[in-house]
């Protein structure tokens, strides 16, 4: 099978591992920078072009689209879908998961546990917004933030009010969430492929830091999930419509709480921590499920 990998950098660990895993299983895999792809949007024969050539004959496409280029990256992926190429994750699911507010609303509607979350617009709503979330400390989080960036801990109500005013002054969209003290500065990253968790790791924040992201200096170790945690992670990925997802959850006194569902999860941390061939499992999933036209986005 010919597999297209949409990635800005072929040297990134996750991209390299996916290429290696595909080639080890006898497939032909190629990396394309989605920002350098361009499209011929025609009803009779939609096409994707790259460096003067038409990309055709591909059985599957693996999107590794960064958050900052979601709009154009998903447009390119959508064009592949219209050509009948099987997407590992569909464009609509990626867009859904990248919108933190929308994703939390969807998870809430489906009964998936999430931290108490507030969202508002007008300055005079701040007091009631904080009351709806609970008592301090609070987490104030930019909707567009990634890898722990744009996430601030407000230890007092006054600090939270100041942060809210500052973000509003910048016309930034943000959420206010409860701080889960019992998590102890740790979260769980579950790597979901299809309908099961294939690997999981515990990410622990460094001393003096509340963010457990590896990009923020956190450490990773293997962990054992409870059946409830596995079920929550799989359900969260399913609600987003993602075949492959990195689901981040917190262990709270009222059970697992989903923080975020990542549509392009990094593989280095979890493969290193667990020793599992996650990239190989992803390729196996494609082998079992890739069919021409097996997508909700179809062209003429």
Strand order of the largest sheet: 14-13-12-15-16
What radius of gyration results from the CA coordinates? 20 Å
Structural class: alpha+beta
The CATH superfamily of the largest domain turns out to be ATP-grasp fold, B domain
Note poorly predicted spans: none
Number of strands: 16
Summed up, the helix count is 9
Strand content: 25-35%
> What string gives the helices and strands in order?
EHEEEEEHEHHEHEEHEEEEHEEHH
Please indicate the count of domains: 3
What is the terminal separation in angstroms?
24 Å
Average pLDDT, to the nearest integer? 89
CATH topology of the largest domain: D-amino Acid Aminotransferase, Chain A, domain 1
Explain what the structure shows.
The protein has 300 residues and is α+β, with helices and mostly antiparallel strands. The chain has three domains: 2-89, Rossmann fold (3-Layer(aba) Sandwich); 96-113 and 182-263, ATP-grasp fold, B domain (D-amino Acid Aminotransferase, Chain A, domain 1), CATH 3.30.470; 117-179, 2-Layer Sandwich (Dna Ligase, domain 1). The chain has helices at residues 13-24, 70-82, 91-98, 100-109, 126-133, 157-169, 227-240, 268-274, 278-289, and strands at residues 2-6, 28-32, 37-40, 47-50, 53-54, 60-63, 86-87, 117-118, 138-142, 151-154, 174-178, 186-193, 196-204, 219-222, 244-252, 255-262. The strands form four sheets. It has a five-stranded antiparallel beta sheet with strand order 14-13-12-15-16, sandwiched between helices. α2 links the parallel β6 and β7 (86-87). α1 (13-24) crosses α9 and α2 (70-82) packs antiparallel against α3. The chain is globular, with a radius of gyration of 20 Å. The two termini are 24 Å apart.
